[in-house]
Amino acid sequence: MPDDSGIEAGEPIAVAAPDDQDEPTSGDPLLNLMVHLAHMGTSCGVTLYTRGSTLTGHLCSSAAYYQACIDQAPGTYIETVYRSFLNADVARPSIAPGDPTPDYLYVHLLKGQVIAPGVSGMPNGGFPIRVLRDEVIGFSIGQLS
User: Fold this and answer.
1) Strands 45-50 and 54-60
2) Please, what CATH class does the domain formed by 29-141 belong to?
3) How far, in Å, CA of 107 to CA of 135, rounded?
4) Average pLDDT along the chain
5) Is residue 117's pLDDT more than 70?
6) pTM to 2 decimals?
7) What would the DSSP string read from start to end of the chain?
8) What are the pLDDT digits (tens) for 5-14?
9) What's the pLDDT band for 145 if we cut at 50, 70, 90?
10) Neighbour order of strands in the sheet with 45-50
11) Please, which residues have CB within 8 angstroms of residue 145's CB and are 6 or more apart in sequence?
């Protein structure tokens, strides 16, 4: 896919650290805890219900999400953008055991699929998905196939 950005792949871009933990949200506190566990390295398959769609995939940290996006666009400007966010995310201070659970703004899924009636999950194999936690109206443990 041609890249018309005029920026060379791998050229650093200055970005602020993602605000995954900085804004108070009103989403489900149990889902927030599950997102926190994914950031700590423990994850599971989930199905998210929003007002407009059903999404299924494997919960992951924001760093794993950025890396998956990088892996899908090697040598492009898109890779450079996601690498900048990954570097900012990795530079964030880690959460120590006993610290309060941050209020995560986003839910990240690997191998995410959109589920529609009468159609198997789209696309086959899935793709990284990022959803505002406040937009999730329900969820279940387990990934649909």
Assistant:
1) antiparallel
2) mainly beta
3) 10
4) 82
5) yes
6) 0.78
7) ----SS--TT-----PPP-TTTS---S-HHHHHHHHHHHTT---EEEEEESS-EEEEEEE-HHHHHHHHHHHSTTSHHHHHHHHHHHHHHTSPPPPTTSPPP--SEEEEEEEEEEETTEEEEEEEEEEEEEEGGGEEEEEES---
8) 455 555 554 5
9) confident
10) 119-132, 106-116, 54-60, 45-50, 136-141
11) 120, 121
- Looking up tokens 């400007």 gives 77
How far, in Å, are 25, 27, 57, 99, 115 from residue 70 at the CA level? 28, 28, 18, 30, 24
Q: What is the pLDDT of residues 61-106, one digit of tens each?
A: 999 999 999 999 899 998 999 999 898 887 777 777 777 788 889 9
What residues pair up with 112 in beta bridges, in sequence order? 127
Question: Which amino acid belongs to residue 3?
Answer: D
Question: Which residue type is seen at 109?
Answer: L
Residue with tokens 């005029």: 6
**Residue that the structure tokens 């892996």 belong to:** 71
* Residue whose token pair is 């900048």: 84
